[in-house]
Amino acid sequence: MPSSSSPSSPSFVKVVEVGPRDGLQNERVVPTAVKVALIDRLADAGLSVVEATSFVSPKWVPQMGDAPEVMARIRRRPGVSYPVLTPNLKGLEAAIAAGADEVAIFGAASESFSRRNINCSIAESIMRFAAVAERATAAGLRVRGYVSCIAGCPYEGRVDPAAVADVAKALLDLGCYEISLGDTIGVGRPREIRAVVDAVSRKVPVERLAMHCHDTYGQALANIHASLDCGIRTVDSSVAGLGGCPYAKGATGNVATEDVVYMLDGCGFDTGVDLHRLAETGQWISAELGRPTGSRVARALLAKQPPPS
Amino acid sequence: MPSSSSPSSPSFVKVVEVGPRDGLQNERVVPTAVKVALIDRLADAGLSVVEATSFVSPKWVPQMGDAPEVMARIRRRPGVSYPVLTPNLKGLEAAIAAGADEVAIFGAASESFSRRNINCSIAESIMRFAAVAERATAAGLRVRGYVSCIAGCPYEGRVDPAAVADVAKALLDLGCYEISLGDTIGVGRPREIRAVVDAVSRKVPVERLAMHCHDTYGQALANIHASLDCGIRTVDSSVAGLGGCPYAKGATGNVATEDVVYMLDGCGFDTGVDLHRLAETGQWISAELGRPTGSRVARALLAKQPPPS
């Protein structure tokens, strides 16, 4: 099934599955075996990138405390990348020891968010990431960069697209092969997202950009579609919308991979993802977590009945 | 607040609120006083069109059995239209007697759906509507037309955009001042919606078209945004997503007005709608119905807290 579409096709959109990391780090602690099964099932469904875990202090993120064990137990499917988050050199060394082939670093376009989220200024974070990126590259690992708060910050409100472009360019200059633009609090609307992508594209080739939308305000698919219009061909998403129960107060609201793939399928894009297998995986992990799926496509497919006769 | 935006402005998008009719006809029966308060509050929030009720047989739609009473009790706000659904001459006469100034007729782009929903072929439905439209126009009422199943039919699957265009043109020829294109089962994706709008626009001026999206598969805002790109400037939606609890099996899933207005606000369009008052109304009616809101914007606004200090 994944063989029918090729990343070299002009209609290919790469879907980066972030559920096991960006999703599960915001859910209750899940057994390692469940994480491993989730990652393997996602790769089997045709996803070519599955962000697997995060090498951070278990003091801060206990949900990711089993990162080395996860990496040891997943079945590495040929052609699939399993990036892991490494905020600092200590995390990077642990990731290298665990056999990671790709790491991700996480910057912000908002000073206040940077200070509160990673406890340093944007400039300081870039310096810190420079050491991580240099060491990772020397060790033969690919490095992915994230920019958070691209359309708004919980502390500062509006974020200037030029600030997003500056951080994205800095990450590119550090050697990141791809920069993911994250609307962390989901406040952006299509025109605003276009403005950000336009601003960033002037400093970073659009082929190197990914869109990472949260659906907190229901805008994620509209924003992703707008970014496709701007030439974006890489989209981050989370199976079943993991990482923010849409019914909970303060939900972070990752956009559901099922909903993204359904849209891409209908817009003439190839993803290599088998929607049916993906939706089954989303149902399974939702049941494991004891929560309803955050995917509307999954709910619709579940509700679908043969027409009344 | 509604005075700050004018329907004659090029950036004006008319939001047609369908919650009291398309929404409540798919919820449990609601007291007349609640319906009246809902309609009045929506008009007070700045909506210039509030579809109020349906003059259909209470045998088929008991939720709308109090249509004359609703029309008698609402406070008609100057400049606001209160269309009502009238599937046949009997309903139309009742609507005229109740003082309606605008009626709506409801056709389908799919033969199977037409037969199952209104028990006649598309051609027969147009003949039936001709009599309704003629009598309504003679009585000085405006007539709005709906075309359902524009992107897919629960019985036939894919629907040909040319078939949508034919029905839309037939409704135009009957004298409808506006034709609302409904993705009744919410299966369409942006490229498919664009294809439909393009096909219909060749037969009906785009200024006469409205987009009516259901969010069953989470595609509604992306589809509405795509239709705006095609020149559509009228959008139907339902406060709080009334008319299909998003958590229920078989949800019909009207797109929430709050989510539409939030997107339009951020895309440089004027709607005349006060999002805050609208969201309050959505919370109030959701509480009256004892169900969670279907609006993600409403949930996000509710969850919003001052940033941690």
From TrEMBL, chains A, B:
Pathway: Metabolic intermediate metabolism; (S)-3-hydroxy-3-methylglutaryl-CoA degradation; acetoacetate from (S)-3-hydroxy-3-methylglutaryl-CoA: step 1/1. Residues 13-279 form the Pyruvate carboxyltransferase domain. It catalyses: (3S)-3-hydroxy-3-methylglutaryl-CoA = acetoacetate + acetyl-CoA. PROSITE patterns: HMG_COA_LYASE, PYR_CT. Pfam families: HMGL-like. GO terms for molecular function: hydroxymethylglutaryl-CoA lyase activity; metal ion binding. InterPro entries: Aldolase_TIM, HMG_CoA_lyase_AS, HMGL, PYR_CT. Its EC number is 4.1.3.4. GO terms for biological process: ketone body biosynthetic process; L-leucine catabolic process. Keywords: Lyase, Metal-binding. It comes from the Eukaryota. Belongs to the HMG-CoA lyase family. This is hydroxymethylglutaryl-CoA lyase. It comes from Coemansia javaensis.
